Amino acid sequence: MDYESGTVIFQKDADARLEPASMTKLMTVAVVFNEIRAGRLSFDDQFFVSENAWRTGGASSGGSTMFADLNSQIRVEDLVRSVIIQSGNDAAIVLAEGIAGSEGTFAQMMNELARQIGLDGSNFTNSTGLPDPNEYSTARDLAELGRYLIREFPEYYHYFSEPEMEWNGIKQPNRNSLVEMGIGVDGLKTGHTEAAGYGSVTSTDQGDRRLVAVVHGLTSMRERTEEGRKLLTWGARAFERFTPYAAGAVVAEADVYGGEAAKVGLVGQGEIALYLPRGSRQCLSATVNYSGPLMPPIAQGDKIAELRVFCNDQLVQSAPLYAAQDVPQGDLVRRATDALKQLALGWL
Fold first, then answer.
1. For binding substrate, which residues are annotated in this chain's numbering (predicted)?
2. In whole angstroms, what is the distance from residue 17 CA to residue 179 CA?
3. How far is it, in rounded angstroms, from Cα 284 to Cα 279?
4. Looking at the annotation, which residues are catalytic?
5. What CA–CA distance (Å, rounded) separates 191 from 133?
6. Mapping DSSP to helix (H, G, I), strand (E, B) and coil, where does residue 280 land?
7. pLDDT confidence of residue 240
8. CA-to-CA distance for 82 and 63, rounded, in angstroms?
9. Residue 133, exposed/middle/buried by CB under 10 A (0-12, 13-18, 19+)?
């Protein structure tokens, strides 16, 4: 996914449900960052390590851990660093309990924020990503979540590229091994469970743009690293930028039923920049897809449609399209005219 525009330059099973594993922790830190921005939380606040956090996410659990001491108190900043760098399950639970009182209540906050971001294919039940049949996401949602964190919290993004963290005398490297490979990767999060396999959400600003990539279901840490590296390198080098529509340019029009206007213009979020395989402009075709006719009122900026770009009948990129202007409900004559048109001809 291109970070700036949100357009997808390659996808495979992007909307299939997957077990997010520790990539769930991206939503955990998103909630924490939002609480800090709202003034309800500070990095200097300290949270108590409960027996639940210690047993469920501590050393004896067998999972990734901060090695937090039972009944100790830990600063929020250290907990956040552990969640990001060490993938500490105990740290994630301590944050959830400290902010919301329980993981269940914290999960409600996660899902509320997910809806606000537009992650319609995700549901969260805990702060860690430990297996739960009711916790799921999609590759597209995880990419959008990564994009959200980079865009909304640039002042905190440096935590994702820290090479290591030490706690209780135990030094652990960043679980995202791509950070140290020198290919421009500076985030975001890995994940693994026995059932889900190995996955990661990664980002790089190598080249002239930032990319966000998701891989999942791989068989080992080594394969996860290698496939992530290949995907990001290919995305950065094998595509050229092409801008067919400037910011505000109308890409197409969508039919409106019973509105003050019979159609509404569709525009991108800023300019629409396509990233295409080098030398492939001659193969291009495109469609605009939406469910219509649209019903008023329509507000400027409403997400209406999707631009799909094809090369030799293969989908190579998609980009969201938005209403270019408001379309209020029309008067009685307009609604009656549209009703007769639909009755007589069907909606074309």
1. 189
2. 27
3. 11
4. 22, 25, 87
5. 16
6. coil
7. 77
8. 13
9. exposed
**Alpha helix (H) residue ranges in 180-275:** 221-237
The CA-CA-CA angle for residues 284, 285, 289, to 5°, reads 140
Query: What per-residue string of b and e applies to 297-329 under the rule 16 or more CB within 10 Å gives b?
Result: ebeeeeebbebbbebeeeebbbbbbbbbebbee
In order of their start, the domains of the chain are 21-237 (3.40.710.10), 242-345 (2.60.410.10)
Q: Tell me, what amino acid is at 117?
A: I
Q: What is the pLDDT of residues 272-294, one digit of tens each?
A: 877 777 777 777 888 999 987 78
Distances (CA, A) of 289 to 78, 203, 251, 256, 300: 46, 29, 12, 14, 18
pTM summary value = 0.79
Q: What is the pLDDT of residue 260?
A: 87
Q: Which residues are annotated as a binding site?
A: 189
The tokens describing 223, both together, are 């394969």
| 225: nearest Cα among 165, 181, 163, 174 | 181
Binding site feature residues for substrate? 189
Asked if residues 186 and 216 have their Cβ atoms less than 8 Å apart, the reply is no
